[in-house]
Design a protein that fits this description.
Keywords: Oxidoreductase. The structure is a single chain. This protein is mostly helical and 293 residues long. 66% of the residues lie in helices and 0% in strands. Helix 1 crosses helix 9 and helix 4 crosses helix 12.
Length: 293
């Protein structure tokens, strides 16, 4: 996607002549004060990007997903496939990444971890009350049940401290690849500007279900490298199966209140799976090839 060209100051991302559209979009998404011109610029970045992703996932050619059972079966199928055949990027992290490579991977995903789950909050008002509750249970865990020491962002900050890295979000804006910003941005789209909550529900159901497998590679790397503050990863491995169950419950409760478009739920899964793979594969690729961000 070609970057939108603009002029003015660096104080507002919408006024930059930037070749980093996903970074600019991320800066919009974590702010609340937007001028009309900035909102327009946000849309100019986001709309063609999301349209392209939706077109990409619509080409999967699989059987139409029109029931909860079909959705769950297809989702579990792709999770099981990745568990049985981990991608090379995950195997690199688990078995080969040295201290510097591990530090780089942690650095690259800091923008997401330092803002973790904040993008989920707007979705609650778009769900029936009985579906809000299981999603809220996920959020309560994400924020440590009100206990700072258990908050997931704080656990990541402890890891950053151990690695001698900054815990300030702004320090990562210029050193993070576009694909990681895109990973965070898709959550903001699903909760704030998507036409329905189905995309969020499908995406989060997959993400919570796959993280125990995905983060097990981080846990293995931490054990191999002697990383003491592994709890951001090991806690996700422990708690996310419960979160996955909660999101599936939210899908069922939403379906009890209205006709649910399971094709869009599945597309939400496909969106998250696509941007997640793009982000992690890109980060590992940049490291192994010695590229500049």
């Amino acid at each position: 996607m070609a970057a939108v060209q603009a002029t003015a100051t660096s104080d507002h991302p919408g006024t930059l002549a930037s070749d980093r559209p996903q970074r600019d979009l991320f800066k919009y998404n974590i702010r609340f004060d937007h001028t009309p011109a900035e909102v327009q610029h946000l849309r100019e970045i986001e709309t063609p990007w999301v349209d392209g992703l939706l077109a990409r996932v619509a080409e999967d050619g699989g059987e139409k997903v029109d029931t909860f059972e079909k959705f769950r079966e297809r989702m579990n199928g792709i999770i099981e496939e990745e568990a049985q055949n981990p991608p090379p990027s995950c195997l690199f992290l688990a078995n080969e990444a040295d201290d510097k490579a591990f530090r780089f991977i942690v650095e690259q995903f800091a923008v997401d971890a330092l803002t973790e789950a904040k993008s989920f909050l707007p979705i609650l008002g778009h769900l029936p009350v009985t579906a809000q509750m299981p999603v809220l249970r996920v959020l309560i865990d994400e924020f440590g049940c009100g206990n700072l020491s258990q908050m997931h962002t704080y656990l990541y900050m402890k890891l950053l401290d151990e690695l001698g890295m900054s815990t300030e979000l702004d320090d990562y804006f210029d050193i993070t690849v576009e694909e990681v910003f895109a990973f965070s941005n898709i959550f903001h789209w699903t909760t704030k500007r998507a036409p329905c909550p189905e995309y969020f529900l499908g995406g989060l159901a997959w993400f919570e279900a796959v993280v125990p497998t995905f983060f097990s590679h981080y846990v293995k790397a931490c054990e191999r490298l002697g990383i003491a503050n592994h709890h951001y990863f090991s806690e996700h491995v422990h708690i996310d199966p419960y979160h996955a169950h909660s999101v599936l419950k939210a899908i069922q409760e939403t379906a009890r209140h209205r006709d649910l478009d399971y094709e869009r739920v599945w597309h939400g899964t496909s969106l998250l799976a696509t941007v997640t793979a793009d982000a992690f594969d890109k980060v590992v690729d940049v490291w192994t090839k010695g590229e500049k961000v």
